[in-house]
Protein 1
Amino acid sequence: MFGGCAGGGRVTLLPPVTTTASAETASHKIRSLGEIDPWRPLADDADTQTLSMFGREDLIAPTSSDYAAMKCAPLPDVGDPMTVIAERARATRIVIVNESHERSEHRGFTARVAKALSPLGYDVLAMEALSNPPDNVTGRFLPPFRQRPEQPFLEDDDGYYLSEAGFGRLGRQAKALGYRLLPYEARHDPGEANAPWEQRIAKREEEQAQTLAAYLRENPQARVLVHVGYSHAGEVPHTNGQRWMAARLKAMTGIDPLTVSQTTCRGGGATTRLAVLPAKEPAGMFDLVVDHPTARFVRRRPAWRLAAGDRAVAIPRALRPMKGWRIVEARVEGEPRGAVPMDRVAIRPGEDVALLLPPGRYRLGVIDVAPAAKSPAQ
């Protein structure tokens, strides 16, 4: 038995460790990591979402605009953001919270929102990241959350970006609270590949809104929390005339959603607070703006998870790589390999990177990532 804890609760790492070569997996996600040079991870139009998916926000933060300070004036005379969100949510059936795809903290915040809204009757969590296959897909070809909704965890096959540990925990929190998971992403249409960008965006936003509106019509008592990326939460047309999903959903249903942006302001204070919508944004674009503090990292991992109760656990030296990327995963004891692990992080030789885990018993797995083969032109 390995062992490890850092105060206030015990984390136990159980043998044996499962070792897999990336050649033994069919994961496009792992192949994407293999295409990133471990020692020049931000070179050549870096795939920052893949780095975030594998727990390496610390590599992204120094240069990403999603981490750069965007200070906004604090919203005066208001209380804790979660209290304000819950109070405002009473007056609607739809709450929409956005995220940066590079910042797992935003998923942690939505998990807290889900907990705050549950006593108010919110019982559906819609996420654009959930796999949404065509209607003619049935049975064993459906994503696991559709086949086995009673499972307390998400699986890697439930959606491409849901493999990130924070997304997995958002799913766990929602399931534990009794939320139903609702996919609503627009289906891929090969015929649209050469259409103008504006047309493709408009089609996606319209289809997303139609799916959510249909569910609300068919379930008139349902109250829905929607987790989206970036501008999809925009409640009024953009300055270029583009109408995003939230604006279209509002028009279709006649329901005024509570829209919450986590991507508009950042780094304004020492604690998470509500901020004034910047003047550069169209009036009414978002109802509430959440301003998170500047991101900090401890042993290369996001400090917000320690503040939320995780323990920093050393990765045993025997599991650290000699070359290239190695993915280290910690799954709850008894859960299958397909489950999104409680933590998943890609490490390089010589790094002291911690696992971040709540108290519990876990089994470790490692995946050695083969570098992508380079073409002769490279």
Protein 2
Amino acid sequence: MPAVLLAVVSACAVSAQAGAAGQQADAPVLSERQLARQLADEREWSRRFLQASRAYANGQWEEAERLAKRAVAFDRDQPDGLTLLAAVYAAQGRDELAGQTYQAALALSPRRGDLLNNYGGWLCSHGQAAEALVLFDRAALDAHAAPADLHVNAGICAQRSGQWERALEELRKALVFYPEHPGALESMASLQLQRGNPMAARAFYQRRLGAAPATASVLQLAIKVEEQLGDKAAAEHYKSRLDQAQGAGQDADARVDQQ
């Protein structure tokens, strides 16, 4: 199975956005009082957004939803608040709302690479690979997009849709930008195994284990690779590590101790 698509929730610096807005040639000149009010509003929105982001990161879905809605209500023109709310809906399994909210965020800033990447990742996770790949291509035109994460998502999506050559190309690009990217390495290992190259898959999963703490998903992949290579001892080693993780009650995406 391909690796899980990366969830990217952008926490943009409000001050940077304000600075960019102030550089527009047709931007109105603000009085000192107006500028102070604008900065106060930006700080308040940022505070609400960060509170919601923390709740999301901690898996507190109901609290994250409540706080994200507060951020959206404070400034409905901020796509980041909507993106975070969409991610919360997705985590709750409320797929229709998630898709609608990702679309609403993208409509506010249709050229932003992170928003295109987020919505593309969601589309691919819901069986719409062709539409997702179009969005990833658009995201690549944004010089401010995170290129490694973008190419990993595009690679995973291409693999899911059976476009192995494109998947290989995208993952190679990701590794050029970030040679030890855990998602790229695990996805490349999965792709090589699917293509019938278990030795190459072994090299990539071993790099993945060296790049970041192990997860159950990469241990499961390692077991499959070693079984195909006929290395029973190595397969048993990874099975033991996986059993320890599952015995501790960790889910498929949990980090497990390196051994």
